[in-house]
Amino acid sequence: xxxxxxxxxxxxxxxxxxxxxxxxxxxxxxxxxxxxxxxxxxxxxxxxxxxxxxxxxxxxxxxxxxxxxxxxxxxxxxxxxxxxxxxxxxxxxxxxxxxxxxxxxxxxxxxxxxxxxxxxxxxxxxxxxxxxxxxxxxxxxxxxxxxxxxxxxxxxxxxxxxxxxxxxxxxxxxxxxxxxxxxxxxxxxxxxxxxxxxxxxxxxxxxxxxxxxxxxxxxxxxxxxxxxxxxxxxxxxxxxxxxxxxxxxxxxxxxxx
Length: 257
Ligand SMILES: C[S@@+](CC[C@H](N)C(=O)[O-])C[C@H]1O[C@@H](n2cnc3c(N)ncnc32)[C@H](O)[C@@H]1O
Fold this sequence. Notes:
Keywords: Biotin biosynthesis, Methyltransferase, S-adenosyl-L-methionine, Transferase. Belongs to the methyltransferase superfamily. InterPro entries: BioC, Methyltransf_11, SAM-dependent_MTases_sf. It comes from Xenorhabdus khoisanae. The structure is a single chain. The protein is 39% helix and 23% strand. By secondary structure, the chain is α/β, with parallel strands linked by helices. The mean pLDDT is 91. The protein has a domain at 10-150 and 168-193 and 247-255: Vaccinia Virus protein VP39 (Rossmann fold), CATH 3.40.50.150. Helix 5 links the parallel strand 4 and strand 5 (135-146). It has a seven-stranded mixed beta sheet, with helices on both faces. The chain has helices at 10-27, 29-43, 60-67, 79-87, 124-134, 152-161, 173-180, 199-208, 225-234, and strands at residues 50-54, 71-76, 93-96, 109-115, 135-146, 184-196, 242-254. The radius of gyration is 18 Å and the shape is globular. It binds S-adenosylmethionine.
């Protein structure tokens, strides 16, 4: 069995992100940090004008590319996210679609930019193949994704409370690098650590970004006051705060075809 291939419920993912759309930008601090870094990686090279923002969400970074004079296609699985992006007029074109089956012609964009979206795909290799197919020769694909070990504080705390799985399993860095192997690429990993003064805002930050949906199904066990207290007691503290770590892989793929 190929461990890099999952079976995700895309309908449920689109629903979770769609519901999070209106509050998303106020809670998506991690996405903004990783997206800024991803932009610096893409801008290090002078590529063409047409940008695909794949898994654009509210279009925070579509707008950044548009401000730079690029022609931007904003694409997302979630109609709720895409509607929000369209209301803000962040892009030139809006496309509801799946990164793993792009409704775009081959060689039709110069830059594929995908910030923290491909971790929701079934198969990273398939997603990268599609992004590569639509990118023209000489173009660039930049993506960021969550790596195994992310949210480990939360996972460990839950393990002390019950036997259910409460966090998603993300790919190890090795599998991400392997998926990039067919192309001229560079992958690096960075750690981001957030601190919360209370547990509830930490949990809400995950909900707000639509990240509470589990790849293998709905979260089990109702969040009662008793369970919340037990989780609070089990959660590690750092100077009185609740830390939450994310391991992020950044990939740069050159389109040499
Ligand atoms: C964590 S958000 C990131 C949004 C945006 N890139 C940003 O930086 O703020 C992930 C987004 O990817 C979208 N998404 C998830 N799976 C997708 C897929 N297979 N194809 C297209 N979009 C997808 C979700 O609907 C969501 O809007």
